[in-house]
Write a structure and sequence with these properties.
With about 160 residues, this protein is α/β, with parallel strands linked by helices. It has 8 helices and 5 strands. The chain has a 5-stranded parallel sheet, sandwiched between helices. The model has no long low-confidence stretch (mean pLDDT about 90).
């Protein structure tokens, strides 16, 4: 089933999908629905997945093939029919791997379109806490002085902590 990553803006959804695609697949078909009238037109005609795949091949400039290509639908909330199409991808061509992301997916409501309930899986992505960020940046010593409430050392490294924050 296609995977939908839900989360606020700027939490890393796009980066995560692209990095996953680069490390786990031979090819990544990145499709952004943000301000792309060609994709609006492609999905308006019908949701025939064979026709959609033909159009997506043209959009990305190579043949999307099952199992070795990750299809990424980014900013999918901008195209409600693309969101609905995930149901048909799941039912008719389950051999294609699709991950989609968008902000406000839980609140966006578009009249006349369906949500692919039961035909997709969900992952909620949250922003890092400051401590998680420090670990990711390999700033273990800064994290340690914060965890220990070592205010004297925090004063010494105040500028660095502020820059990291």
């Amino acid at each position: 089933m296609p995977l939908i990553i839900k989360g606020a803006r700027q939490v890393g959804k796009t980066w995560l999908m692209q990095e996953f695609g680069k490390t786990q697949y031979e090819k990544v078909a990145y499709i952004s629905f943000d301000s792309n009238p060609r994709l609006d037109t492609l999905f308006q005609k019908d949701l025939n997945v064979k026709r959609l795949l033909d159009g997506l091949n043209i959009e990305v400039g190579f043949n999307i093939t099952p199992k070795d290509t990750l299809i990424i639908f980014d900013e999918i909330q901008e195209n409600p029919l693309a969101l609905t199409s995930l149901k048909y991808f799941s039912e008719n061509v389950p051999e294609y791997d699709i991950v989609a992301a968008g902000s406000l997916l839980g609140v966006a409501h578009h009249k006349g379109t369906g949500f692919p309930v039961g035909k997709v899986e969900y992952l909620n992505l949250y922003p890092l806490s400051f401590k998680e960020f420090l670990l990711a940046m390999d700033e273990k010593q800064i994290l340690e002085i914060i965890d220990k409430n070592d205010f004297e050392m925090q004063k010494v490294f105040k500028e660095k902590i502020i820059d990291l924050l």
